[in-house]
């Protein structure tokens, strides 16, 4: 049927208006019932007068839709539902108009989220009736959404010049403040952002066939949104950016619908031309095609206008949320409308923001790229982009933020799928298999499996799994030097690699007699590690350390899955465990991992399958391994497995296990007794040493009751004085464990007197021997012979014995007879021995990563902890030992400093003011004495020595505990410390006067002016009549001390009028007509109390800030004030050394564009979010970047380090030097308190044989925001 084109359009418009009216009327009944605030008076649902109009409206809805369908058919356009648009539900008839729709738009946006779409449709009707009035209403709603609270009826916003209008809005914001609806946490505004976006999206959809192309509505709206996005108030920019991005998103939907209509019209035209060359139908279709094309062109011009006027400025805004919104939006635009946006002109912005200093923005860029690379059709257009930015994508896998790194690894996985990366580019990425973060480790594991392991699959299932294991072993060869690193790799790959869950395949490969070139001994060792780790993973046991110690609650399905996995593993191991143990019994590198497998099996399955003999055979082999080997790891695994089998098995299995365990203990006791009897007969004490080590590992798990054996150990110490330190250590450890087991066997409520007496005798004998060897060790240290291992063992055992038998702890119990307290002489020897070990540094210690001496790495920390716990729990006199420990606060690294800090916090809680001053002062005196002993006889400047620097650092750390409110609380303590320090410094003056500079001054500057004047009055008479010119260098610390106190006192004594005038002048300069921010509008405060002064701009250099927050002029404080704080590290990652390609600290730059230099003005924020700065002073002029893609390097990239090789950069601008994107370190290089992280760092350092790089300071030239 042929219809005239004009008639069809008229019918179409008429039908659309009827349809809109019907839709508005159809939802009223439901909305009225749901809305709590809209009560209707005199309404009865059963009233027949209401039902009849409802039926008529329903008929009107059906009739009003028909012209619209006819009009679409007449225009040759398909009536398919729009793709990507909101799917409209068929509405039921309503009884009356919804009053919520007629409210002010801002009220609907704030409180009536359910009728936002209807409000948009209603506004479109008002616009069609009176465009000027409706547009005025829309603009006012826009300004109110931006937070403007004042009356907006002073101007006709549709007629006034936009620049003047925006300038007026900024002035209103300065005078009356803004409401931050977007950032508010108020309950009423929780959905404001969604409502605002929905309203503008609905408005565009409602106008897409009419007002959208009238060159008034969209032009005026876009001009205002773009203008608001360039204003100083941050709220303006946030709202404008949100709406601008949403307009482009909605216009993309319109363009896609129009594109579908154009394609449909083109198909119909082609079909019609085949039938006839000319005619009304062909003419109508040609006209429709031309109009649709013009509309698409207009819509695309609108999108370009917003992109150029808003996006190109705001993607570099100082607000990270604005930047992230821009990047998220452009990613969705490119994905949804690639015909326009999928080109380098737009892609480059995502590439540039990969260097953003904010982690959320970097991640949004990566996520946007993931969506693009997920579509195969996009890949050809992404070739040049990938070439330019692939290096940065690889670097992001090492990002400081874990979420960014994980997302970047997922992006690299997509690049590999499309073969856009070379294998040699991913070399550094494989090292993240041993990363401390489990998220990164598993992400790289998925990538490695898909790229390296899975491609090896082929053939039958068994061949497939075996080839996977062979590829896995090739990877493990790179880490086979350390079993811990292998565990990290296995943990990263275990979830995806099915071969690691095939027990039969792994055991078959281990049991086969294969050629050496197919499965070498190193590969067999790694495969055993894979088997052992897979067994642990099968029962949900962690194989690598984790910083997350929260208890994980498993669901029933997860528990059932673990049980099934454990059952399958046990069935497979029952058949092969004994064979594996028999084959590798003599192999120390493999036997420990195989022995531990039995601890994870369901032992009852041995009985169910009638395999009791296999169970006994496996335990007998474990016993043989215990006897054959002497290393701690194997011995520990054997004892653990035997004890587990003896306690967790049942019936006949338990009897068999207990019998084998008893035989093991008896045989060990017999061998050890024999070795003790043969001591001294041969020069080699190997038999004695290894059996003592076996007994020590046995006693760590079970109690050995053989009193004669332990008596022989004491006799060995009595008879021989030239035993090796390792033998002495093991004897002490065994005796200590024996005494501990004996103490646990005593009933605390009804103790046996004979057991108590025997325990006292054993303890006394042990302490006597410990004291004797402590004196021997001290003599060796003083002769320059270090005895590290023995020293550490003696100190730890003494600390534990004093704690277990503490007189203060046991006094209230029936075991008070066991309590005792060491004398001060013994404590003095104990601390001297501790100090010798703390002062000793051996480079070899840092090279040890694993093995029997790995525990020596933490010897210093263990010794300090052993001494600190005695003081913290009042086991010994804190006045005697406490200052000695505190004097080492700043000498031995961060870990020991943290230990001392915790001790100090504990001690301060229960210490009086006088005791605290003596505690601090004595600690500083001890540190100063060590300094004087070290520099005695030296002619150099004593204040330049490292020991004097340690004294100053100690005083600085101690004085820093008196900041804030603690300064007033502990003021008497500070005064006593200063006075006591002065008296100490003047003993034999001027010999010790440097103590004033090294310890006292930091505390003196914490005092108020009155106390400082008293101190000056006390110290100045001390030098009267003294000729200080005889030794000017000796008296210099005194004069420095006095000058600093006088300067501090003079600062406090400034005339009140001068200070008030300075403050008044400062406020006058700072305010410049801008009112202070009222944090809470509803509260009335007194004169200017809540005003926040604006920070003066850089041009105001003629005055300085005079006000004092808290006078803290100590040297440490002054240093802190001048050092820019480093980036805060939220989820610490291990400081692992990278290859040179990823070793340097990243410096990131951005394209030069307009840069809003922020200077936060003070605006009334109402109850919104007072903590967030809202007002930024923009640059005096704005300049847009070039629209064309420029591949030259910008001037800001000149400061890049060589590692940044990406050359795709925009043309530089001459307006402002861009410093916005600051450096972003690729890794957190700060020292971590986690022992797991520290161990991983040492392992990686050893692996690459390169030192761990120190942390590079963050650039001080980055963009700062007030």
TrEMBL record:
<protein>
    <recommendedName>
        <fullName>Cohesin subunit SA-3</fullName>
    </recommendedName>
</protein>
<dbReference type="InterPro" id="IPR056396">
    <property type="entry name" value="HEAT_SCC3-SA"/>
</dbReference>
<dbReference type="InterPro" id="IPR020839">
    <property type="entry name" value="SCD"/>
</dbReference>
<dbReference type="GO" id="GO:0005694">
    <property type="term" value="C:chromosome"/>
</dbReference>
<comment type="subunit">
    <text>Component of the meiosis-specific cohesin complex, which also contains the SMC1 (SMC1A or SMC1B) and SMC3 heterodimer. Such complex likely contains RAD21, or the meiosis-specific related protein REC8. Interacts with CCDC79/TERB1; recruiting cohesin to telomeres to develop structural rigidity.</text>
</comment>
<dbReference type="InterPro" id="IPR039662">
    <property type="entry name" value="Cohesin_Scc3/SA"/>
</dbReference>
<feature type="compositionally biased region" description="Low complexity">
    <location>
        <begin position="1222"/>
        <end position="1236"/>
    </location>
</feature>
<feature type="domain" description="SCD">
    <location>
        <begin position="311"/>
        <end position="396"/>
    </location>
</feature>
<feature type="region of interest" description="Disordered">
    <location>
        <begin position="1050"/>
        <end position="1169"/>
    </location>
</feature>
<keyword id="KW-0158">Chromosome</keyword>
<feature type="compositionally biased region" description="Basic residues">
    <location>
        <begin position="1064"/>
        <end position="1077"/>
    </location>
</feature>
<dbReference type="GO" id="GO:0005634">
    <property type="term" value="C:nucleus"/>
</dbReference>
<comment type="function">
    <text>Meiosis specific component of cohesin complex. The cohesin complex is required for the cohesion of sister chromatids after DNA replication. The cohesin complex apparently forms a large proteinaceous ring within which sister chromatids can be trapped. At anaphase, the complex is cleaved and dissociates from chromatin, allowing sister chromatids to segregate. The meiosis-specific cohesin complex probably replaces mitosis specific cohesin complex when it dissociates from chromatin during prophase I.</text>
</comment>
<dbReference type="InterPro" id="IPR011989">
    <property type="entry name" value="ARM-like"/>
</dbReference>
<dbReference type="GO" id="GO:0007059">
    <property type="term" value="P:chromosome segregation"/>
</dbReference>
<feature type="compositionally biased region" description="Acidic residues">
    <location>
        <begin position="1087"/>
        <end position="1114"/>
    </location>
</feature>
<dbReference type="Pfam" id="PF21581">
    <property type="entry name" value="SCD"/>
</dbReference>
<keyword id="KW-0469">Meiosis</keyword>
<dbReference type="GO" id="GO:0007062">
    <property type="term" value="P:sister chromatid cohesion"/>
</dbReference>
<feature type="compositionally biased region" description="Basic and acidic residues">
    <location>
        <begin position="31"/>
        <end position="40"/>
    </location>
</feature>
<keyword id="KW-0597">Phosphoprotein</keyword>
<keyword id="KW-0539">Nucleus</keyword>
<dbReference type="GO" id="GO:0051321">
    <property type="term" value="P:meiotic cell cycle"/>
</dbReference>
<comment type="similarity">
    <text>Belongs to the SCC3 family.</text>
</comment>
<dbReference type="Pfam" id="PF08514">
    <property type="entry name" value="STAG"/>
</dbReference>
<dbReference type="InterPro" id="IPR013721">
    <property type="entry name" value="STAG"/>
</dbReference>
<dbReference type="Pfam" id="PF24571">
    <property type="entry name" value="HEAT_SCC3-SA"/>
</dbReference>
<feature type="compositionally biased region" description="Acidic residues">
    <location>
        <begin position="41"/>
        <end position="51"/>
    </location>
</feature>
<keyword id="KW-0159">Chromosome partition</keyword>
<feature type="region of interest" description="Disordered">
    <location>
        <begin position="27"/>
        <end position="96"/>
    </location>
</feature>
<dbReference type="InterPro" id="IPR016024">
    <property type="entry name" value="ARM-type_fold"/>
</dbReference>
<keyword id="KW-0131">Cell cycle</keyword>
<feature type="region of interest" description="Disordered">
    <location>
        <begin position="1182"/>
        <end position="1266"/>
    </location>
</feature>
<feature type="region of interest" description="Disordered">
    <location>
        <begin position="265"/>
        <end position="287"/>
    </location>
</feature>
């Amino acid at each position: 049927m042929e219809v005239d084109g004009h008639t069809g359009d008229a019918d179409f418009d008429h039908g659309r208006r009827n349809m809109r009216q019907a839709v508005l009327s159809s939802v009223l009944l439901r909305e009225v019932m749901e809305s709590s605030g809209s009560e209707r008076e005199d309404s009865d649902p059963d009233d027949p007068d209401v039902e009849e109009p409802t039926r008529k409206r329903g008929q009107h809805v059906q009739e009003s839709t028909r012209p619209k369908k006819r009009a679409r058919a007449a225009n040759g356009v398909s009536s398919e539902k729009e793709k990507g648009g909101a799917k409209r539900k068929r509405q039921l008839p309503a009884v009356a108009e919804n009053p919520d729709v007629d409210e002010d738009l801002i009220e609907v946006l704030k409180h009536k989220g359910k009728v936002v779409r209807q409000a948009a449709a209603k506004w479109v009707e008002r616009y069609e009736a009176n465009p000027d009035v409706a547009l005025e209403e829309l603009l006012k709603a826009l300004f109110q959404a931006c937070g403007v609270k004042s009356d907006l009826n002073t101007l006709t916003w549709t007629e006034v010049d936009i620049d003047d209008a925006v300038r007026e809005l900024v002035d209103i914001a300065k005078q009356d403040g803004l409401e931050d609806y977007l950032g508010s946490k108020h309950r009423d505004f929780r959905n404001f952002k969604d409502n605002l976006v929905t309203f503008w999206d609905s408005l565009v959809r409602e106008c897409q066939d009419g007002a959208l192309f009238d060159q008034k509505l969209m032009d005026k709206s876009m001009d205002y949104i773009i203008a608001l996005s360039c204003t100083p108030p941050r709220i303006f920019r946030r709202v404008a950016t949100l709406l601008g991005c949403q307009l482009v998103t909605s216009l993309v939907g319109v363009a896609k619908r129009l594109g579908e209509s154009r394609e449909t019209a083109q198909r119909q035209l082609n079909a019609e031309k085949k039938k006839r060359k000319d005619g009304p139908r062909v003419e109508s279709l040609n006209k429709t095609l031309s109009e649709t094309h013009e509309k698409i062109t207009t819509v695309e011009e609108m999108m370009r206008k917003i992109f150029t006027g808003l996006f190109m400025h705001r993607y570099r805004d100082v607000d990270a949320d604005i930047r992230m919104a821009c990047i998220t939006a452009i990613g969705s635009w490119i994905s949804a409308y690639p015909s326009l946006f999928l080109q380098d002109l737009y892609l480059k912005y995502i590439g540039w923001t990969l260097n953003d200093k904010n982690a959320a923005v970097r991640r949004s860029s990566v996520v946007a790229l993931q969506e693009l690379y997920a579509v195969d059709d996009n890949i050809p257009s992404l070739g040049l982009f990938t070439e330019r930015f692939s290096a940065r994508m690889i670097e992001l896998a090492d990002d400081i933020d874990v979420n960014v790194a994980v997302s970047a690894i997922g992006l690299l996985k997509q690049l590999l799928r499309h073969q856009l990366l070379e294998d040699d580019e991913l070399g550094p990425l494989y090292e993240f298999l041993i990363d401390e973060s489990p998220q990164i480790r598993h992400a790289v594991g998925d990538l490695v499996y898909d790229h390296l392991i899975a491609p090896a699959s082929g053939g039958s299932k068994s061949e497939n799994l075996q080839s996977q294991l062979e590829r896995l072993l090739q990877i493990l060869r790179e880490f086979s030097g350390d079993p811990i690193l292998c565990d990290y790799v296995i943990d990263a790959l275990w979830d995806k690699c099915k071969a690691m869950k095939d027990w039969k395949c792994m055991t078959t490969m281990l049991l086969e007699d294969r050629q050496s070139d197919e499965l070498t001994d190193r590969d067999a060792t790694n495969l055993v590690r894979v088997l052992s780790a897979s067994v642990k993973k099968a029962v949900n046991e962690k194989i690598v350390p984790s910083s997350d110690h929260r208890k994980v609650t498993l669901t029933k399905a997860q528990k059932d899955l673990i049980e099934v996995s454990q059952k399958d593993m046990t069935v497979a191991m029952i058949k092969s465990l004994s064979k594996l143990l028999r084959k590798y019994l003599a192999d120390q590198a493999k036997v420990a991992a195989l022995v531990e497998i039995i601890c994870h099996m369901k032992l009852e399955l041995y009985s169910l399958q009638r395999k009791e003999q296999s169970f006994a055979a496996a335990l007998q082999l474990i016993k043989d391994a215990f006897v054959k080997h002497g290393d701690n790891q194997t011995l520990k695994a054997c004892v653990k497995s035997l004890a587990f089998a003896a306690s967790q098995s049942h019936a006949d299995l338990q009897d068999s296990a207990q019998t084998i365990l008893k035989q093991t203990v008896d045989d060990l006791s017999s061998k050890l007794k024999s070795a003790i009897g043969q001591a001294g007969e041969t020069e080699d004490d190997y038999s004695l040493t290894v059996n003592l080590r076996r007994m020590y590992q046995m006693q760590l798990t079970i109690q050995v009751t053989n009193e004669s054996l332990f008596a022989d150990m004491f006799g060995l110490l009595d008879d021989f004085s030239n035993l090796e330190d390792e033998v002495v250590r093991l004897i002490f450890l065994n005796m200590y464990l024996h005494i501990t087991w004996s103490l646990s066997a005593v009933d605390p409520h009804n103790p046996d007197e004979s057991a108590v007496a025997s325990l006292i005798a054993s303890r006394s004998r042990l302490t006597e021997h410990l004291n004797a060897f402590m004196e021997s060790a001290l003599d060796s240290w003083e002769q320059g012979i270090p005895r590290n291992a023995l020293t550490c063992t003696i100190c730890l055992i003494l600390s534990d014995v004093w704690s277990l038998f503490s007189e203060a702890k046991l006094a209230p119990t029936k075991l008070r007879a066991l309590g005792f307290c060491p004398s001060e002489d013994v404590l003095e020897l104990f601390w001297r021995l501790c100090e010798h070990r703390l002062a000793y540094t051996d480079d070899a210690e840092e090279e040890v990563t694993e093995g029997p001496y790995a525990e020596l790495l933490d010897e210093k920390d263990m010794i300090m902890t052993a001494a600190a716990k005695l003081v913290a729990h009042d086991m010994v006199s804190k006045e005697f030992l406490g200052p000695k420990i505190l004097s080492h606060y700043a000498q031995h690294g961060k870990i020991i400093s943290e230990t001392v800090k915790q001790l100090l916090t504990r001690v301060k809680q229960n210490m009086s003011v006088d005791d605290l001053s003596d505690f601090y002062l004595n600690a500083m005196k001890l540190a100063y004495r060590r300094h004087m002993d070290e520099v005695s006889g030296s002619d150099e400047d004593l204040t330049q020595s490292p020991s004097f620097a340690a004294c100053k650092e100690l005083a600085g750390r101690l004085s820093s505990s008196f900041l804030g409110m603690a300064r007033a609380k502990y003021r008497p303590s500070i005064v006593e410390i200063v006075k006591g320090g002065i008296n100490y410094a003047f003993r034999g003056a001027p010999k010790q006067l440097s103590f004033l500079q090294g310890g006292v001054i930091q505390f003196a500057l914490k005092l108020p002016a009155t106390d400082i004047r008293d101190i000056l009055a006390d110290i100045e008479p001390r030098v009267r009549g003294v000729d200080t010119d005889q030794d000017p260098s000796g008296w210099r610390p005194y004069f420095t001390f006095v000058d600093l106190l006088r300067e501090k006192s003079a600062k406090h004594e400034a005339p009140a009028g001068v200070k008030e005038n300075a403050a008044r002048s400062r406020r006058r300069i700072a305010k410049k007509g801008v009112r202070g921010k009222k944090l809470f509008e509803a509260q009335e405060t007194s004169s200017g109390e809540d005003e926040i002064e604006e920070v003066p701009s850089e041009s105001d250099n003629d005055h300085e800030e005079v006000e004092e927050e808290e006078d803290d002029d100590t040297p440490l404080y002054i240093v802190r004030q001048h050092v820019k704080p480093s980036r805060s590290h939220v989820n610490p990652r291990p400081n692992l050394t990278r290859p040179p390609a990823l070793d340097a600290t990243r410096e990131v730059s951005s394209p030069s564009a307009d840069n809003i230099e922020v200077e936060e003005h003070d605006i009334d924020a109402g109850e919104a979010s007072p903590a967030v700065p809202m007002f930024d002073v923009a640059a005096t002029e704005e300049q847009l970047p070039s629209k064309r893609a420029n591949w030259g390097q910008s001037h800001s990239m000149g400061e890049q380090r060589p590692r940044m090789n990406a050359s795709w950069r925009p043309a530089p601008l001459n307006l402002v030097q861009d410093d916005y994107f600051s450096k972003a370190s690729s890794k957190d290089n700060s020292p971590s308190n986690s022992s797991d992280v520290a161990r991983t760092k040492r392992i990686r350092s050893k692996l690459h044989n390169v030192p761990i790089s120190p942390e590079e300071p963050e650039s001080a030239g980055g963009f700062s925001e007030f």
